[in-house]
Amino acid sequence: MREKFDIQASNINNARGVGRSTRLQDRGIGGQSEKEILNIVTGADQADAVFEFVFHVAEINHPHGGMMYMASLGAATLFTLPELADED
């Protein structure tokens, strides 16, 4: 994805929760499962293409495939590592 869309920033976070189809009696602390949250920062000009790409690659359109949403970003700062001299 980085090469295809030149994505410069993304984050993966973990959370716990229950699915919509989880029975009420199983929605306690023991019934929670680990979830992964992927945040991708991209320009508005390619946001729809990135959204569609992730939707299909992550198989969101399959049962229990998860959910996605897109929102505008208020601000972001590009973080880059400095170039290091080659050690010979």
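The above is record 1. Record 2 follows with the same two-line structure.
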Amino acid sequence: MSNSTSKNTKAAALALVQALIAGTLKHFPNGSFTLGNTTYTTASLVALLQSLANTMIALNVAQLGAKDALATQQGTKATVGPVVEAYQRFVQAAFSNATTTLADFGLAPPKVRTPLTAAQLAARAAKAAATREARGTTSKKKKLAITGNVTGVTVTPITAPTATPPVAQPVSTASSAPVPGTATK
């Protein structure tokens, strides 16, 4: 069923099977074939090839239907999804302590946050202080107190002589043709 000159696509495979059917009916209308230890007549071989073509067509139709159904579901989910999430939050807020009622909605009760122990709080504070010192971060007031000192640098101002403004030049006309209405000597 593979053809090295054409692309291996579903459409090409279907076209090949249909061409085999047409060629068999045209050139071997009453033939008998032995293929792989099985004898086929033209009618039985065409029926076998036609069953393959029919299943290929049915698969294409089913795949297109699945694509359409998936696109429809994604569109519906985009519009209904936020409503479902909001309703879930509402139900969880309304029945936060009633686990059996939440189970009726298919929801689990919210997890209770376990408080940190004194040792864990002290470790968290020590880690935050160490991170702050390692990064060199300080408060706003401490940043204002930090100033930089520059030594050994001499700043010499550049003084350039002021340029005189350009003198206005009269605009001359470069036309050599006499202007009409004027006399020339």
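Residues 42-94 form the longest helix (53 residues).
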